[in-house]
Design goal:
The chain is an alpha+beta fold. It has one domain: ACT-like. Chain A, domain 2 (Alpha-Beta Plaits), CATH 3.30.70. The protein is built from 4 helices and 4 strands. A 4-stranded antiparallel beta sheet has the order 2-3-1-4. The radius of gyration is 19 Å and the shape is elongated. The relative contact order is 0.20.
Length: 138
């Protein structure tokens, strides 16, 4: 870790009180780590917004595996983009529903495009892509 720098921040008292409640609920023991995480998050978001930035992400899908040919379609799409897929996890939630988590790595635009295609496939009930930077925003 690099050398720490101290800064002063002026914040409205009401906003600071809400922030303190928020970080307390999230388990932070001090404001500094919460501020550092907010800064990292903003930097990661900026990185992910650049189409050619290298990103990693998790794509979570929930779908009914009884939908005709859906499992085959999702698998085929993953094979078509095998260079983006690092790993997958498949869980049977109940008799009908499956949860699939894909770990993706590649250019931000390609990762987003693949995620959008999988999420919008007929029969997928829910999907969410969470993107981060391999460097964690630092």
């Amino acid at each position: 870790m690099s050398e720490l720098s101290r800064i002063g921040v002026a914040i409205d008292s009401d906003l600071l009180e809400k922030f303190d409640q928020h970080i307390g609920q999230r388990g932070y023991t001090n404001r500094s780590e919460a501020f550092r995480d907010l800064i990292r998050e903003a930097l990661i978001e900026k990185t992910a917004a650049k189409a050619d930035s290298l990103v990693v992400g998790t794509l979570t899908l929930v779908y009914d595996h009884h939908v005709r040919m859906l499992s085959d379609k999702l698998t085929a799409m993953q094979h078509d983009h095998f260079h983006l897929v690092l790993s997958t996890l498949h869980v049977h939630l109940d008799h009908h529903n499956c949860l699939e988590v894909l770990i993706l790595k590649g250019k931000a635009a390609a990762v987003q495009k693949m995620a959008d295609a999988l999420i919008s496939t007929k029969g997928v009930m829910h999907g969410r892509l969470t993107i981060t930077s391999p460097g964690g925003g630092s």
